[in-house]
Amino acid sequence: MAQITLIEAVTQALAWEMKHDPSVVVLGEDVGVNGGVFRATLGLLDKFGAERVIDTPLDETTIGGITVGLAAQGMKPVAEAQFEGFIYGMLEQIICHAARLRNRTRGRMSVPAVWRAPWGGGIRAPEHHSEANEALFTNVPGLRVVLPSSPGRAYGLLLASIRDPDPVIFFEPKRIYRQYKEEVPDDGEALPLDVCFVLRDGSDVTLVTWGAQVKETLEAADALAEEGISAEVIDVATLKPLDFDTIHESVRKTGRCVIVHEAPRTAGFGAEISARLAEHALYDLVAPVERVTGYDTHIPLFRLEMKYLPSVEKIVAAAKRTLAVS
Amino acid sequence: MEKPVPIAATFEIEYLQYLDAEGKLVRDDLPAFARDTKQLVKLYQEMLMVRVFDAKAIALQRTGKLGTYAPCLGHEATYLAIGSTMQEDDCFAPSYREYGVQFHRGVKPRELLMYWGGDERGSNFSGPAHDFAWCVPIGTQCLHAAGSALAFKIRKEPRVAVCTIGDGGSSKADFNSALNVAGAMSLPLVAVIVNNGWAISVPRDAQTGARTLAQKGIAAGLECLQVDGNDLIAMRAAMDHALKRARHGHGGMVIEAVTYRLSDHTTADDARRYRSEQEVKDAWAREPLRRMKAYLMSLNAWTEDEETAWKAQCTKYVDAEVNAYLETKAQPVEAMFDYTYAELPADLLAQREEAIAWEKRT
User: Where is the Dehydrogenase E1 component domain (chain B) (predicted)?
Assistant: First the structure.
């Protein structure tokens, strides 16, 4: 079985679903002959033709709006925003229409669409190519927000997102697009949405994260283990709707929680997890919840971006602060 | 430049009118449908019904029985032309006052009243299930129509998507994006700009320096036409042409229907603040029902007695619809949750229970 990267897993999932469901179409800028600027749609044009692999005019408003129209008429469009920083031109269509068409028509119409976008910093990209803007979407009723962190979860969660009857924002952590390979059987098996994945069992502290930060968080857990500290690592994977039960169960065990994300801190999605811990798990907590996040600044241009992003050292330090309380 | 420079492109916008403001024919090439006087009478009757409904809806709002309402006074010919030329399996994407189109396509007045009366069930209407509901974010519906047209094209279905937009809306990115993508992909899209002269308080001339709004489709590669939107015959002829060519794969079209908003923008607006009484008075002389009535009477196809009798029938029908609307009870509190997702996620189910429990508190 072939070992594939996260971006190859995205392509593999798209190809599987297009092959098995003729209503699935892919659209966006440069998704056709060029295969997408990250090559997520590589080879799809040859396999499925220009009617299903659609190079749109260079206009995010168009992509946002025709995706709603396609989905409302029974297609399953998978739209690509070339970068997460370009998705803002689609926001009105996503928020005012995709997210609420089912509700406002009492189920008469719906938008079974996926908006994919490369997401996050750390690839030395130009301005507006490094955002972590997931929290803009987690406050919108009717949406799902999904962020895979491995080739296997990219494949399984993208299949599930395309099959989901409601609109899904599917952010792909571009920093780890090609970071490593793993075996991902091309068997069409979806992974469940709306659940967190416990990537590592531990008993002393719970580390909660998503996207590319899963890498640093697992490394931080390794570093803590060397010092005899047992960290549980949770990949949230579906931010909205949130599987809080899995997080709560872990915190019941550890009494300590560090939330790691690269988005700005204030009203970042970590704030929601922290609030739910305060509401439902206050008496399980031994120490205050810690957040290791981007600062409340714009992610700097790339000379400084690694100083902005959460690092292994910052995560380890935060975990140790929670352990200093007893 | 001293020497002549080659022309890269030129364009013209035609203006189509059959009936002038007095109801006299200005062309002798009457389209076939317009020779069917019975059909014209039926459409005139539907226009009258829309007008009776519109007045009733405003009265309901004024007496606290309806929320803010957007009237359609003066737009009846444009709307009935669109409604009566589209096929049922075509897709309609309106803004929020195209009631004449929608009634013709099977939407019930009671459903429309429910929408403006604060109840989502109004948008789960009796019209075609693939038609979009009222669209408040200006212009966004044009891309839904374009996306629908793309779906029809991909599936090789002989269907057309029709969107309507106001003169103000023609300034929006979504409208221009829809025309652009329709041209680029040769989509079966018909975009009707209902140019009623006013975008709330901003006049048409403040929207753009373009001589016509129809020509906005030229840059996108679409066929474009300006029509007297108060002339049912001209609007029907234009729509027939646009739908036929779109259905046969010849691409999209823009129709600018020149009409006038004889009402306020909505019941929350007071148009006396920004436009002159004289302008409105002049516009009444061009309105669509007056000229159609004059034309039908000149053909001995309609009488004052028939008009009086039909208006009474309209009132009876509208009153029954109003009563049906007033008798509907509000949805239970959990209705706000039930269509957020196909299946409610656990955390939302918990909030649903919370809302129900709160309602039942003692």
Answer: 45-328
Decide if B144 and A75 are in contact by the 8 Å CB cutoff.
Answer: no
| Cα-to-chain-centroid distance, residue B152 | 22
Domains assigned to chain A: 3-183 (3.40.50.970), 197-323 (3.40.50.920)
Q: Would the CB atoms of A92 and B348 count as touching at under 8 Å?
A: no
What burial class does residue B4 get, using C-beta atoms within 10 Å of its C-beta: 0-12 exposed, 13-18 middle, 19+ buried? exposed
> Which residues of A are known to be catalytic?
129
Q: What contacts B329, CB < 8 A, 6 or more positions away?
A: none
Q: Does B137 touch chain A (CB under 8 A)?
A: yes
Query: What domains does chain B contain, in order, with CATH numbers?
Result: 14-331 (3.40.50.970), 333-362 (no CATH)
Tell me the backbone φ, ψ of residue A292, rounded to 5 degrees: -110, 110
Give A-chain residues touching B152 at CB under 8 angstroms: 73
